[in-house]
Please model this.
Amino acid sequence: MHITALPIFIPMFAAAALTAVRHWMPRLLNDAIAIGVAIAVVVLCALLLAHTANGHPFAYWMGGWRPKHSVAIGISLSIDPVGAGLATFMALLITAALVYSSRYFEAADGLYHALMLVFLAAMAGFSLTGDLFNLAVFFELMGAVAYALTAFKTEEQGPIQGGINFAISNSIGAYAIFTGIALLYARTGALNMAQIGHTLDGHHADPLVLVAMALLFIGFLTKAAAVPVHFWLADAHAVAPAPVSVLFSGVMVELGIYAVARLYWTIFAGPLGPHIDALRAILIAFGTLTALWGAVMCFSQRHLKRLLAFSTISHVGMFVCGVGLLSAKGLAGVITYVIGHGFTKAALFMLTGVFLHRFATIDEFDLHGKGREIPWAVVLFAVGGLLLSAIPVVTLFFGKSLLDAAALDAGYPWLPSVFVVSSMVTGGAVLRVSGRLLGWGAPELEGGPQAAEAREEEGEEQAPRDYTPPLMLIVPAVLLLGAIVIGLIPGAVPAIEVAAGHFLDHLSYINWVLRGHVHFAPASTSHIEGFDYAYAGGATLGALALAALGLFGRPLRQRVPDLLLRPVVGAIGGLRQLHSGHIGDYIAWWTAGAAALGGASLIFLR
Amino acid sequence: MSFLPFAIAAWLFVFGLYGVVSSNNLVRTIISLTVVQSSTYLVLLGVGYVHGGAGAIFADIPATAKTVDPVVQVLVLTDIVIEATVTGLLLAMAVQAHKRFGSLDPHDMRALQD
Amino acid sequence: MNRRGRLGLFALAGAGLAAVLVIGFTGLPDFGSYHGVYGRVITGVAVTLRHGTDTITALNFDIRGFDTLGEEFILFASVLGIVLILRQLRGEQEEPHQEESEEHHFAGASAALRALGLTLIPTILAIGVYIVVHGQITPGGGFQGGVILAAAPLGAFIAGRYLGMKTIAPHVVIELGDALGAAGYALIGLSGLVFVGIFFKNTIPLGIPGHLLSGGQLDVASVFVGLEVSGAFLVAWTEFFDQALIVKRGSQ
Model:
């Protein structure tokens, strides 16, 4: 299609043009142009999605350098429904974030808009490209913009430290990716993913391929924030401006997961086919650790954005598990869940922005009772909490049902309970905050592991205000509505299942990219079982119970014998201490994660 | 000898990481980061090297001459631009960090301690 | 973690990662005996189909020109980021511009140093332009030449005239160069789409290999990239110099 490259070109060009005239542009025009460009990208990506959705993926060769004798020469955008759908979803979130920030920032000159537009182009390129090195280039582009946006509020300490930790962690991830690319290039003499996969097919996984896979995966998992390479995320997401956090949690992190899935099924599915069970176990181990770690950390936060950031880490754990199940159903579950989670988490970050804008604090206890001034914001916040617990029958619920079914199919009957814990705890934490906003529970925390924590948001505080622009509530309301209804659109979830089935058809991918022949094996769709409702209902009830426990549980806690309580409190405290904000610690953990993934691959996948 | 460049690359990667982990000055951290990145240059260029090959520039050599692989050189060029820009961005943050924290020691930056 | 814990963890993890890397690298072909298909195809294509004798430039600005688009915007966005991060904040102010004679003297520039710095400016400019426009023939091109061009105004700084450097390369102009270079490179892609129907497809006559005007879009791309790179580096340097020499410390 002629429009294929435009979702990347238009925002880039607009960003450069806005910068060229930025000293003469009024704020309103900046907002209007940025929003207009974002909407144009939504439309273009939706057209690509519509074109490919009926089983017509295609490769677009930049500069007309088509493959000769099935050897790729140029760079391709390899468009399939998953990539195009992800790009559409991402562009929708950026549009929402830009509309929201037109009211959120009192002063934002063209620099902010230009950076957001480059971010848009980078994420579109990342979703659409079919070339491994090009993927890494867009990874870095996304990174460079994101580091700068994290440090947007340079007058405070937090954003600077968060930006530094983010930039260093992700740069090291990128170097792992470059090394992995070099290894694959040495072996295959190719950079196009289809070409690399084609060349590796029929060979078994030797150490070079395994190490290349481990390096690429750990690099992209750094962006995705899987434990133990996740430390930067809580710092960066907590200090970035609310509209930027929306994009970080809503879609940027998920792009890391997307890259892992894309690389596995295009490149490594051939040589690793015989070891699928062992690889599944490795990825699920990482995912489970991430899901539980994030959940515990999430519930123990009182800083709202940090709480949401850890909830994202917990959900990333679910995504890693879902992709790690290495099945169409698991991938379809992840895609569905990412859509629901992205809209929900975006709305929650925006509402946090509303509280910060109005009350100049986002400390849970400082906000005690303040929510009565803006009841609608609290209602929306609580709805977000219920959605995170995957209450039937919202989009997240459909995603979780697919994940549960995929886990059972793959022989992991205990995995759904991990998902339940993740939903329950992250939803419960948000509901607890909603309750506190309404003035329920204790107004101040005494004793316990959190008492020593300082007010992290000091400095972020401008003067409190006595109004909230309606637009700042409308945008999250629309997003939450989207998170509720998208899964209910007839045919939406089955279409995702079909797209996921095609996504992991390794041989067909090589064929349609390098030769333009489209032929897929028929994909199957599944039904929702009764136990799915039971699981999801249980998770929602559990979330409500946890919220109540967090608000009113102190008398109860005093009755628990010290012998039982102390190890739990100590363990949580120890876990929290690891998040020291010290970049040296983070990179030591990163090295451990890379060594663990590499070592496990070399030992178990041969 | 044929493994030496790659052994050095592995050493640079881990040694650069050691620099980042052990650093007590942000500027040293950033320089260490570029050491890690140098490892990627070495792997990429080492991979594409051909004994006796000329650079793939045919201004004054015949079109049939033996050359080294040009693709990895392009990748390294991109890699270098990335290094220069990210280093610049990080140094800008270091300037601000020094203003906000009054120190460049990561140990003194405690805004994000959990 | 304390320092000991951190280094202890790293000792274990680093040893593990080193082992993983070395085991992986043992699978590489012996140093100097590479036979990849991609490189051979490209060396065949670059001169015959692109009329550029520098294969690397042909790859950079045409065959893999889309990578360079991303790379251009990494540079562009990073510089925007530097401007954003170092922008002046409440509580900070510029020292009032003083007379040229009173301006900050970098290490007390001597007369010889001044003469050298000022002669360097046109010399470096000439070399930079030469490198930029010959990128399709011999080693060089927009990136290499752009960095050299950006170094020219530094001659004024060496001569102890930082404000003079800002007069040669005013902030508005270099920022405009940065943005127009990035936009121009993106427009090369669009011109392919508009005139030939494919993004980044060459639309410019190829010329004779080895001649100044050859290689189609390679030369145009080089010029835009040179413009952007020189602008971007100057913006970044100016921002850092301003922090060091002009902006007064704010409240800590």
Notes: Chain C touches chain B through 56 residues (CB under 8 Å). Residues 98-102 of chain C have pLDDT under 50 and may be disordered. The two ends of chain C are 27 Å apart (CA to CA). The CA atoms of residues 188 and 200 of chain C lie 6 Å apart.
